[in-house]
Specification:
InterPro entries: Leu-rich_rpt, Leu-rich_rpt_Cys-con_subtyp, LRR_dom_sf, RanGap. This protein is of the alpha/beta class and 297 residues long. The chain contains eleven helices and twelve strands. The chain has one domain: Leucine-rich repeat, LRR (right-handed beta-alpha superhelix) (Alpha-Beta Horseshoe). Helix content is 32%, strand content 15%. Helix 3 runs parallel beside helix 4, helix 4 runs parallel beside helix 5 and helix 5 packs parallel to helix 6.
Length: 297
């Protein structure tokens, strides 16, 4: 990493009170030095994606008085564990936080439980967390009585099965969700049916389920459920769909608001692809993807 003052100078946006430190090979000691710099004043957003920040670095952030107005904290793909998240959950420095990104860290169900009980983080509207929550962690978040303001919840790649999906579907506290990302899990048809028929999720506008084997039964449930009427984006990349499930989308009477549909790596014939592309039931559909172009691989 370059010297501390140069890193800060390059990443600091004084006008927006933002500090962009992504992809700088920053570890705990580096971050400790950064937050002690006189250049750091009243930061509201800090971006630390793709670094090597662990629990000690998180504690340095929490101890920095210039972070007391922080609203956005992005720690995507770092080394934060349950202990680091537990410290966040108790720190008044996090009281104003509205967006927390902790995907691709070392968070398990224990971290999720601390998060679910935190009154400090009750203002969150956007939460990304992982990658070892499993069903127990997903259930803790779904049943949280403090995380009730969430508009966006991303639990991708957390080894979640139907049990976790059922907990989300049955939640009474996630009714404000408009975006739900469950990519790279192990949710099958029962879980997909529960999500599709959930009254709690009736405000969803974006549902992404890449690499979940939900099959035709799961897709048919989504295509037929009144609770999915507000969907504008549906991502079903490699979800074991055949013509049967794809035809249900084309014939759906509830997906009229759908604008973007991803069906890459499924077993759908050209005939049914055309049915979807020309369906009068999907009047707003402007983007449908059945296969990746070479540039997207």
């Amino acid at each position: 990493m370059a010297d501390t003052e140069s890193i800060i100078k390059e990443g600091l946006n004084i006008e927006n009170s933002e500090l962009d430190l992504r992809e700088r090979e920053i570890g705990d000691e580096d971050l400790k030095n950064i937050v002690q710099s006189d250049q750091i004043k009243d930061i509201t957003a800090i971006f630390l994606e793709f670094n090597e920040v662990g629990d000690e670095g998180v504690q340095a952030l929490l101890d920095c008085k210039e972070m007391k107005n922080l609203t956005v904290l992005n720690l995507f793909k770092n080394q934060v564990t349950d202990a680091g998240l537990a410290a966040m959950c108790k720190s008044k420095t996090m009281l104003n936080l509205s967006e927390l990104i902790l995907s691709d860290n070392k968070i398990t169900a224990e971290g999720a439980k601390a998060l679910a009980k935190s009154t400090i983080l009750g203002n969150l509207v956007s939460l990304w967390v992982g990658d070892g929550l499993e069903d127990e962690g997903a259930t803790a978040i779904a049943e949280s009585e403090t995380l009730t303001r969430l508009n966006l919840l991303s639990l991708y790649r957390n080894n979640i099965s139907d049990e976790g999906a059922l907990a989300i579907a049955r939640s009474k506290n996630l009714s404000k969700l408009t975006e739900l990302n469950l990519n790279w899990n192990y949710i099958e048809s029962d879980g997909a049916v529960a999500l599709a028929e959930s009254e709690t999720l009736k405000n969803l506008q974006q549902l992404t389920m890449t690499y979940n084997p939900i099959g035709d039964r799961g897709v048919e449930a989504i295509a037929k459920s009144e609770c999915m009427r507000n969907l504008t984006l549906l991502d079903l990349y490699e979800t074991e769909i055949t013509d049967q499930g794809a035809r249900a989308i084309a014939e759906s009477k509830v997906l009229s608001n759908l604008e973007t549909l991803i069906l890459v790596h499924n077993d759908i014939s050209e005939e049914v692809q055309e049915l979807i592309q020309n369906s009068e039931n999907l009047p707003k559909l402007s983007k449908v993807v059945f296969r990746l172009t070479p540039a997207e691989h």
